[in-house]
């Protein structure tokens, strides 16, 4: 009996592998990270680093900024608020997950296309984003995000060029009240917005967002335009209060942050009634 | 008394469990002898037009490329003026090489897919939510798609 116990112990310790050991390698192409992060219960990645979460937040913020004001954007804004709160509390995995959800909401499937051009001596790289979600460009430990239509030129051994400064709005003055006669369709205009030139900028993106429409009026969608000039004559708009910003875009430096918002109001000019009286007309 | 008899008995049992025909010259079979898996191509060449050449990582000479040629780590592809080719990666992302271009297929352990040393490439991801592509040049690295941002 004792011998049997010794034998079985000895045999049990001498385990001979029956198959070659397989060394698993992480497949970059096959790793379904997005699927994992968008699942109902996200994996809590203990090793999520702050810079990884920060980069995700930056990407999602850029996508949020470029998104039209619709239900999808509002839902994404909620996710981004959660992401920012998690980040502030150093819950980087949760921040990453929420930023990822916001990004996915704002980026329904569409192809991504960009061009990379390297000159003959390899010293200069030009990256141009053509379509789809933003891409990142890294050089000398600095990162820039390129959205549709933007490009950046990078010289070897140099840092990425600084983005242009934000344009300074000129006209109309902040909170200016326009009193105009509406058209038959109830719209008013024209109102011309203008701003100061920004060095290096070749175009300007202007966004006008309604803040408060008159009671009973139809909700108004934001209006946007990309201008080569430094002014924009707005299309006729319904009465109400509006907020506008302008962003400078440079072919070499990328885009600026939006300008400080300005506001204006469109008010209906009071009707002038002329009533015929005995001795003529009375206003 | 009985205890002295057990070690020889155990030795005999151990000998009996050895596989027959195993000589001193033979190396024991194990994981070290398992054949190496064949290298997995990182991409394929497609839609070749004009003079397109390839240089394998282990070769010294350039040779004419052909359609559907698999591309492995550190292989290089070049196009002459007026030529073009498409590099299709395993995840479906594609890099279109214009004329007079030179690119290298990056090692999979690096955080990039293709290195552009000269010329112009147009990169496309049909499903950027699930695909990724990283293009490196002597001056910069461009990352597209979602996944790679969070790695």
TrEMBL record, chain A:
Residues covered by region (Disordered): 25-55
Compositional bias per record (Low complexity), positions renumbered to this chain: 35-48
Taxonomic lineage from the root: Bacteria, Pseudomonadati, Myxococcota, Myxococcia, Myxococcales
Top-level taxonomic group: Bacteria
InterPro entries reported in the protein's UniProt record: Ig-like_fold
Protein name as annotated: Peptidoglycan-binding protein LysM
From TrEMBL, chain B:
Keywords assigned by UniProt, alphabetized: Signal
Organism ancestry: Bacteria, Pseudomonadati, Myxococcota, Myxococcia, Myxococcales
Endpoints of the signal sequence: 1-24
Name of the molecule in the record: FecR protein domain-containing protein
Residues covered by region (Disordered): 22-44
rRNA processing among keywords: no
PANTHER family: LIPL45-RELATED LIPOPROTEIN-RELATED (PTHR38731)
Residue intervals of the FecR protein domain: 75-144
